[in-house]
Amino acid sequence: MPGIDPENSAPEGIRLNKYIASSGVCSRREADHLIESGKVTVNGITADLGTRVKDGDTVAVDGKAVIPEDNMIYIAFNKPLGITCTTDTRDPSNIIDYIDFGERIFPVGRLDKNSSGLILLTNNGDIVNRLLRSENGHEKEYVVTLNRPYDSTFIKTMSSGVPVLGRMTLKTEVFPVNQKTFRIILRQGMNRQIRRMCEYLGYRVTKLKRIRFINIRLGDLEPGKWRYLTADEKKELLKGLSK
Fold it and tell me: Of the candidates 69, 95, 111, which is a domain's last residue?
Protein backbone atom coordinates (compact mmCIF):
# COMPACT_ATOMS: atom_id res chain seq x y z
CA MET A 1 0.00 0.00 0.00
CA PRO A 2 1.55 3.35 -1.03
CA GLY A 3 2.41 5.84 1.68
CA ILE A 4 0.41 9.04 2.25
CA ASP A 5 1.91 12.32 1.06
CA PRO A 6 1.40 14.71 4.01
CA GLU A 7 1.43 17.77 1.75
CA ASN A 8 -1.31 16.51 -0.55
CA SER A 9 -3.40 15.17 2.31
CA ALA A 10 -3.27 18.39 4.37
CA PRO A 11 -6.57 20.29 4.61
CA GLU A 12 -6.85 23.31 2.36
CA GLY A 13 -6.06 26.70 3.92
CA ILE A 14 -4.52 27.54 7.29
CA ARG A 15 -5.88 27.22 10.81
CA LEU A 16 -8.03 30.15 11.85
CA ASN A 17 -6.08 30.83 15.05
CA LYS A 18 -2.81 31.00 13.10
CA TYR A 19 -4.39 33.41 10.60
CA ILE A 20 -5.60 35.71 13.40
CA ALA A 21 -2.26 35.59 15.22
CA SER A 22 -0.39 36.49 12.01
CA SER A 23 -2.35 39.74 11.88
CA GLY A 24 -0.93 40.84 15.22
CA VAL A 25 -4.36 40.99 16.88
CA CYS A 26 -3.44 38.45 19.57
CA SER A 27 -1.67 35.14 20.23
CA ARG A 28 -2.94 31.79 18.93
CA ARG A 29 -4.18 30.84 22.39
CA GLU A 30 -6.07 34.13 22.71
CA ALA A 31 -7.44 33.60 19.20
CA ASP A 32 -8.82 30.24 20.32
CA HIS A 33 -10.69 31.97 23.16
CA LEU A 34 -12.13 34.53 20.71
CA ILE A 35 -13.27 31.74 18.40
CA GLU A 36 -14.82 29.72 21.23
CA SER A 37 -16.73 32.80 22.43
CA GLY A 38 -18.30 33.28 18.99
CA LYS A 39 -16.54 36.57 18.26
CA VAL A 40 -14.92 35.40 15.01
CA THR A 41 -16.60 35.08 11.63
CA VAL A 42 -15.36 33.80 8.29
CA ASN A 43 -17.27 35.14 5.30
CA GLY A 44 -19.95 36.37 7.70
CA ILE A 45 -20.49 32.97 9.35
CA THR A 46 -19.56 32.35 12.99
CA ALA A 47 -16.45 30.19 13.02
CA ASP A 48 -15.38 27.27 15.22
CA LEU A 49 -11.96 25.96 16.25
CA GLY A 50 -11.78 23.65 13.24
CA THR A 51 -12.36 26.40 10.67
CA ARG A 52 -9.59 26.93 8.14
CA VAL A 53 -8.99 30.08 6.10
CA LYS A 54 -8.50 29.94 2.34
CA ASP A 55 -7.48 32.60 -0.18
CA GLY A 56 -10.31 35.06 -0.66
CA ASP A 57 -11.94 34.41 2.73
CA THR A 58 -12.90 37.39 4.88
CA VAL A 59 -12.12 37.00 8.58
CA ALA A 60 -13.50 39.39 11.21
CA VAL A 61 -13.15 39.67 14.98
CA ASP A 62 -16.00 41.54 16.67
CA GLY A 63 -17.04 42.72 13.22
CA LYS A 64 -13.62 44.18 12.31
CA ALA A 65 -11.73 42.72 9.36
CA VAL A 66 -8.51 40.87 10.20
CA ILE A 67 -5.61 41.02 7.76
CA PRO A 68 -2.31 39.15 8.24
CA GLU A 69 0.62 41.57 8.56
CA ASP A 70 2.21 40.13 5.41
CA ASN A 71 -0.88 41.19 3.44
CA MET A 72 -1.15 44.70 4.86
CA ILE A 73 -0.53 47.55 2.45
CA TYR A 74 1.01 50.90 3.39
CA ILE A 75 1.73 53.42 0.67
CA ALA A 76 2.75 57.08 0.53
CA PHE A 77 1.08 59.17 -2.18
CA ASN A 78 1.88 62.69 -3.36
CA LYS A 79 -1.62 64.04 -3.87
CA PRO A 80 -1.81 66.63 -6.65
CA LEU A 81 -4.19 69.58 -6.61
CA GLY A 82 -7.75 68.77 -7.63
CA ILE A 83 -7.88 65.26 -6.17
CA THR A 84 -10.41 64.63 -3.38
CA CYS A 85 -9.47 62.43 -0.42
CA THR A 86 -12.62 60.30 -0.52
CA THR A 87 -13.36 56.65 -1.19
CA ASP A 88 -16.71 57.65 -2.73
CA THR A 89 -16.25 56.69 -6.37
CA ARG A 90 -19.28 58.79 -7.33
CA ASP A 91 -16.93 61.76 -6.96
CA PRO A 92 -15.06 61.94 -10.31
CA SER A 93 -11.98 63.38 -8.60
CA ASN A 94 -11.78 60.68 -5.88
CA ILE A 95 -8.35 59.53 -4.77
CA ILE A 96 -9.11 55.80 -5.14
CA ASP A 97 -9.85 55.88 -8.87
CA TYR A 98 -6.94 58.26 -9.43
CA ILE A 99 -4.40 55.88 -7.87
CA ASP A 100 -6.13 52.78 -9.33
CA PHE A 101 -4.20 50.53 -6.95
CA GLY A 102 -6.12 47.34 -7.67
CA GLU A 103 -6.90 46.46 -4.04
CA ARG A 104 -9.16 48.11 -1.49
CA ILE A 105 -7.25 50.82 0.38
CA PHE A 106 -8.25 53.84 2.46
CA PRO A 107 -6.67 57.29 2.84
CA VAL A 108 -5.47 58.16 6.34
CA GLY A 109 -7.06 61.55 6.99
CA ARG A 110 -7.43 64.04 4.21
CA LEU A 111 -6.04 67.04 2.40
CA ASP A 112 -8.58 69.38 0.88
CA LYS A 113 -8.93 69.55 -2.88
CA ASN A 114 -6.85 72.73 -3.14
CA SER A 115 -3.95 71.31 -1.08
CA SER A 116 -1.26 68.88 -2.17
CA GLY A 117 1.36 66.58 -0.72
CA LEU A 118 1.70 63.50 1.42
CA ILE A 119 -1.23 61.16 2.07
CA LEU A 120 -0.88 57.66 3.51
CA LEU A 121 -3.17 54.90 2.25
CA THR A 122 -3.61 51.43 3.70
CA ASN A 123 -5.93 48.43 3.84
CA ASN A 124 -5.46 48.28 7.63
CA GLY A 125 -8.67 49.81 8.96
CA ASP A 126 -7.48 49.59 12.57
CA ILE A 127 -4.42 51.74 11.94
CA VAL A 128 -6.58 54.33 10.15
CA ASN A 129 -8.67 54.78 13.29
CA ARG A 130 -5.64 55.01 15.57
CA LEU A 131 -3.85 57.48 13.32
CA LEU A 132 -6.88 59.75 13.12
CA ARG A 133 -7.39 60.08 16.87
CA SER A 134 -6.35 63.70 17.40
CA GLU A 135 -5.55 63.04 21.06
CA ASN A 136 -2.60 60.92 19.92
CA GLY A 137 -0.85 64.16 18.88
CA HIS A 138 0.68 62.82 15.67
CA GLU A 139 2.85 65.40 13.92
CA LYS A 140 1.96 66.68 10.45
CA GLU A 141 4.30 69.13 8.72
CA TYR A 142 3.33 71.56 5.96
CA VAL A 143 4.88 74.20 3.73
CA VAL A 144 2.51 77.15 3.36
CA THR A 145 2.61 80.15 1.02
CA LEU A 146 0.53 83.28 1.66
CA ASN A 147 -0.87 85.97 -0.60
CA ARG A 148 1.38 88.64 0.93
CA PRO A 149 4.48 88.94 3.15
CA TYR A 150 4.05 88.23 6.86
CA ASP A 151 5.90 89.69 9.83
CA SER A 152 7.31 88.41 13.14
CA THR A 153 3.98 89.03 14.87
CA PHE A 154 2.31 86.62 12.48
CA ILE A 155 4.83 83.87 13.30
CA LYS A 156 4.51 84.47 17.04
CA THR A 157 0.71 84.45 16.98
CA MET A 158 0.49 81.35 14.78
CA SER A 159 2.87 79.57 17.16
CA SER A 160 0.89 80.55 20.25
CA GLY A 161 -2.53 79.61 18.91
CA VAL A 162 -5.53 81.40 17.45
CA PRO A 163 -9.31 80.84 17.74
CA VAL A 164 -10.64 78.41 15.14
CA LEU A 165 -14.15 76.95 15.13
CA GLY A 166 -14.85 78.26 18.61
CA ARG A 167 -11.67 77.10 20.36
CA MET A 168 -7.98 77.96 20.50
CA THR A 169 -5.57 75.94 18.43
CA LEU A 170 -2.74 74.20 20.25
CA LYS A 171 0.70 75.74 20.40
CA THR A 172 2.72 74.75 17.37
CA GLU A 173 6.08 75.23 15.68
CA VAL A 174 6.35 77.72 12.82
CA PHE A 175 9.55 78.30 10.83
CA PRO A 176 10.01 81.12 8.28
CA VAL A 177 11.14 80.05 4.79
CA ASN A 178 10.91 83.35 2.91
CA GLN A 179 8.78 86.51 3.00
CA LYS A 180 5.57 84.68 2.05
CA THR A 181 6.33 81.05 2.91
CA PHE A 182 6.69 79.18 6.20
CA ARG A 183 6.74 75.63 7.59
CA ILE A 184 4.34 74.60 10.33
CA ILE A 185 4.07 71.43 12.43
CA LEU A 186 0.59 70.56 13.69
CA ARG A 187 -0.37 68.05 16.36
CA GLN A 188 -4.13 68.33 15.89
CA GLY A 189 -6.45 67.99 12.94
CA MET A 190 -9.17 70.62 12.88
CA ASN A 191 -11.00 71.12 9.60
CA ARG A 192 -9.02 73.41 7.24
CA GLN A 193 -7.03 74.46 10.31
CA ILE A 194 -4.06 76.21 8.67
CA ARG A 195 -6.22 78.13 6.24
CA ARG A 196 -8.55 79.24 9.03
CA MET A 197 -5.63 80.29 11.24
CA CYS A 198 -4.18 82.43 8.48
CA GLU A 199 -7.55 83.92 7.60
CA TYR A 200 -8.04 84.95 11.23
CA LEU A 201 -4.81 86.95 10.98
CA GLY A 202 -5.80 88.59 7.68
CA TYR A 203 -3.90 86.37 5.23
CA ARG A 204 -4.97 84.01 2.48
CA VAL A 205 -3.22 80.73 1.76
CA THR A 206 -2.26 80.43 -1.91
CA LYS A 207 -0.35 77.14 -1.62
CA LEU A 208 -0.40 74.40 1.02
CA LYS A 209 1.66 71.22 0.81
CA ARG A 210 2.06 68.47 3.40
CA ILE A 211 5.64 67.22 3.51
CA ARG A 212 5.59 64.90 6.53
CA PHE A 213 3.18 62.68 8.45
CA ILE A 214 4.69 61.40 11.72
CA ASN A 215 7.90 59.69 10.51
CA ILE A 216 6.96 59.48 6.84
CA ARG A 217 8.43 62.18 4.59
CA LEU A 218 7.32 63.19 1.11
CA GLY A 219 10.89 63.63 -0.10
CA ASP A 220 11.27 63.79 -3.87
CA LEU A 221 8.16 61.74 -4.66
CA GLU A 222 6.61 63.36 -7.73
CA PRO A 223 3.01 64.68 -7.73
CA GLY A 224 0.57 61.94 -8.67
CA LYS A 225 3.03 59.16 -7.82
CA TRP A 226 3.01 56.69 -4.91
CA ARG A 227 5.47 54.33 -3.24
CA TYR A 228 5.37 51.57 -0.62
CA LEU A 229 6.63 52.50 2.82
CA THR A 230 10.06 51.08 3.55
CA ALA A 231 10.43 48.40 6.20
CA ASP A 232 12.03 50.92 8.56
CA GLU A 233 9.26 53.48 7.98
CA LYS A 234 6.56 50.90 8.63
CA LYS A 235 8.32 49.56 11.74
CA GLU A 236 8.68 53.05 13.26
CA LEU A 237 5.11 54.02 12.36
CA LEU A 238 3.59 50.91 13.95
CA LYS A 239 5.89 51.12 16.96
CA GLY A 240 4.68 54.65 17.66
CA LEU A 241 1.06 53.52 17.53
CA SER A 242 1.62 50.78 20.07
CA LYS A 243 2.63 53.24 22.82
Answer: 69
